[in-house]
Amino acid sequence: QPYTKGSDFEFVPYFALTTLKEKVKQHPEDPLYKLLLHKMYLDAFEINNAERVLKPLLEKAPENYLYLLSMNLLYGKAENETLQNKYYDLLTKHYPKDRDILANDISKYQKEKNKTKVKELIDEYLKRYSTPYIELVYQILVDKLDENYEAAIRKINKLYAKYPYDYYAVAAKYEITSAVYNNPQAARVVLRDFLKKNFNYSIASELANNYVENGLPRKAINLYEEIAELLDYSMYPYTNISNIYARQSDYDEAIAVAKKIIANRPYDHETLASLGFFYMQKEDKKKALHYYEKALSYYPFDAETNDKIRELKGLSTSLELVENLKPEDIIAAYEKDFTPSLKKPYDIVLDEKTTILFKSKATAKVQHYILKLNTEQALKDWQRWNIGRTSGMKLTINEAKNIKTNGNTIDAERHGAEVVFTNLEVGDYIYLYYTEQQRSGGKSDLFVSDHFSLNSYYPIYRKRYTVLSEKGLDLVYETINTDMKPEQSEVEGFVKYQWKVLNPELLEDEPNSPSFSDIAQRIHISLGNSWYDIAEWYNDLSGHQARADYTIEQINKELFEGKNYSDEEKAKVIYDFVCKTIQYSSIDFRQSSYIPQKAADVYHSRLGDCKDISTLYAAIARKAGLNADLVLINTRNNGQKDVLLPSLNFN
What we know:
By secondary structure, the protein is α+β, with helices and mostly antiparallel strands.
């Protein structure tokens, strides 16, 4: 039935906040009530209000330990690493011998394997804060650093004998019993004894893993059932139980437990997909299809789930519809039919890409490359090939090999997303074949787009671009510098579009020529996205980061308090302030593709890329009463024709 919105409601504030606000009014000079009020704001995750209360206290007493520690914790909760580090550094400066600071320094130098510094800091720590327990723990650490493992083991046994219910002692004893003594049964006793009088999820999970690895699945299940009773809000124990049953091929029990999870968490797409798999194993196709389709309805970004559904409907998987290639045949045809018009370091014998688009908007890609290496420089340039990992995609390198002129092959070495071709010689070919299947995604993944170039600055024998678009999708395509139309056909529920060229025109790499995207023969595809949809998405994504907080309020106060500027003057003042204050920086681990940093974080770090700097400007401008919005643009160096169809290919 339709949901009826209520209109008769009253906001009830957190009682502790109300009481403490009153106390602060009654005792404005007493810092205790202000400290407590800031903590209540933190508990309520009202970071800005907590900052408003705490900052003036610190300004009055800038070296106060409690205030500095509170600021450090506040910015930790706010996930503002710049300011958290700033206040931690101030704590370190004023209180270098504080217990937590010494302990953190010991951990830091331990990771750096700086034995001298670790021992020096441990001595300092034990002079000030020694207890029998901590002394023994640090002695073990020193023995490990000195690689005196026999002494470390003796001390671990001593530590465990004295503190059998301490987490560190139990974990260390378990490790040496299972790994050094190779006695999984005795190791289990260590964990079981701890759990008789204590509970720790990590230890309980490790015991369950020990049971499973040593052929005792029933005991693991019993243990997870006990955990489930203790943690009745958590579904993870049931997920583990279901998986254990599945590993034993007891799919009826696995299904029963998985259904318990769905009763509590009906949107759990992973468990729904597991149910689909369990029913597939039982050859109940109808129920398997039901659960896979339900999983896809909650989480559309999984290409493998789409393929499972196709299998259950008696169709080929999407990857099975991609044409198989024999690199030897293509190389033979190249050698017979192709003469490059210009000598270059390498020839592109084959560049073939297949893009697969499902109705759910999940995607997959199949890529084949064959290059012929003509010079020593080409050997250096192509001996290492980094495919790169696309976020949310599962990468599978199907083949990677060096093909000699006599037909012999040498498999490339593989390291994650990187391949290394060995024993390369001038005249060799390299062949790379990989697939990417989407496993996860978000709202931006609904804006599906792709492009492919049909020619290059290097000689090309064969290029082919195929799009398999599931029926029901609104595929839109445009071409640049070519009027080539795709061959179009239908295959098992997909519409197949294919563009192919042999020996296309070679592009000239001239000084000051237009961008590659402007002069190449290119194909652009999308699924009917509109610029309005993309703008709405980005406004929603970036708007939160440009909200005014305590920092932005203080900046506005500094820039505009007591001044009577026009809107244009305000805009110029903000522009000058941002340009003078923030340095442009684009560092992978700090900047994400689309999401700007929070405006205050940009200000405090004094670093940001274009979207970060724009977000800071917009936040200050909005607080100053100006109408400011972020605008997506593509800069001139990307070319005039880089974005033909609405997509996320802006920079």
